[in-house]
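I'm stuck. Please check this protein.
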Amino acid sequence: MGIDTGIITGFLVIAIIVVSLIALQKQYLIYKLALIPYRIYTQKEYYRFITHMFVHAGILHMLINVFVLYSFGSYVEKTFVFLAMDRWVGRLNYLLLFLLSGIMSSLSSYYKHRHDPAYVSVGASGAVSAIVFSAILINPWNMVLVFFIPMPAIAMGILYLVYSIWMSRRAVDNINHEAHLWGAIFGLIYTSITYPELVKHFIRLLTNPPF
């Protein structure tokens, strides 16, 4: 079986870049596509659970998300295709990981802010977090660079969770850190259910580190 991977990741990266750039030029599109819990609650605009992932607050916000998505997403997509033993089943499972994690990571914000018409959230951070932690489950000892410092993926994941919990409690910026946290958790759960063999593989790698 040929494993030509990265198609879904590439599509998502292009879609995010195109939609985000258009929306940044036409600001009304950000309001139309953003996660606004009040609009979802009062106007039943459920599509926002999906569309908010494809718009961003600025160029840097977008570039960070698409860079991380491309870096980790291709690896996860390749693994999903390999384990499914069917390229389209694997790609569908991967696409569902992205879309469902974007939805699930937004539910906490939705319930908390559904009566607040001023709350607005954009970005694919929740879905990207899910893909990062799916990659960690696949191989916790993959080396990644964090501010140019190499460290195992699992160490980066732990630091990321601690940071997200801490910043979520502080609430000093406009970044939806709760989405990062719930996206990471959902990514682990979804990947474990979809490919349960990865759980045993993860435990085996964790208890027998390659060093």
Q: What stands out?
A: The chain has one domain: 7-207.
